[in-house]
Write a structure and sequence with these properties.
Blueprint (H helix, E strand, L loop, with lengths): L8 H8 L3 H13 L3 E4 L15 E4 L2 H8 L7 H19 L4 E6 L5 E8 L2 E7 L11 H10 L3 E8 L5 E4 L3 E5 H4 L2
Parallel strand pairs: 5-6, 6-8
Antiparallel strand pairs: 1-2, 3-4, 4-5, 7-8
């Protein structure tokens, strides 16, 4: 039920009725067996008030939907989980030199996915809508400005059909079916 959200081991342990150490160990077993992805917070400190909790994603969307009982409707969290998991699988399979992170400040500025490469950083926002607007990229723009020359571009990944440039600096609206096909 926590896919795509910040992970709190104490809340997870409380909900399962186990100790924090047991919850942490169970989650580690899921992680080493490639059932889950822990997306760590980005280590570059653009502001001193960033969250330090990882985000949790499942690699098997079918298993996730079955375990949560959400088999009939696709939610924003499950869609985000799907996109992150597929990008993660592609990076690992293709052996791309990229590390995946998320970025979130305590004031609520959030970028769903940052890909750090030797050449710079690519930002991704994930929206479960058919249409996206330039305002959907506002956090990407803020990160781009803070990174300067390290910024390589950004995407607002969506469910629609249009592949269009949203705004500068190099931020595009990209349909997930084109990105993940």
């Amino acid at each position: 039920m926590r896919c795509g959200g910040l992970l709190s081991y104490s809340e997870l342990a409380r909900d399962c009725g186990v100790s924090v150490d047991t919850a942490r160990r169970w989650l580690e077993y899921l992680n080493v067996s490639f059932q889950t992805i822990l997306l760590e917070p980005w280590s570059q400190n653009l502001t001193s008030r960033v969250t330090k909790s990882p985000k949790l994603y499942w690699t098997d969307l079918g298993l996730l939907r079955r375990l949560t009982g959400r088999t009939d409707v696709l939610t924003g969290e499950i869609y985000e989980n799907h996109v992150v998991a597929e990008i993660h699988k592609w990076i690992r399979t293709a052996k791309v030199d990229a590390q995946m992170f998320h970025y979130r400040t305590v004031s609520g500025m959030e970028v769903d996915l940052l890909l750090e490469t030797p050449f710079g950083v690519i930002g991704c926002e994930i929206k479960m809508r058919d249409q996206v607007e330039p305002r959907d990229a506002r956090h990407l723009v803020a990160i781009a400005q803070a990174l300067g020359d390290r910024w390589r571009g950004g995407m607002v990944i969506h469910r629609g059909r249009s592949l269009v440039k949203l705004c500068e600096p190099g931020i595009w609206a990209v349909p997930s079916h084109r990105l993940l096909a």
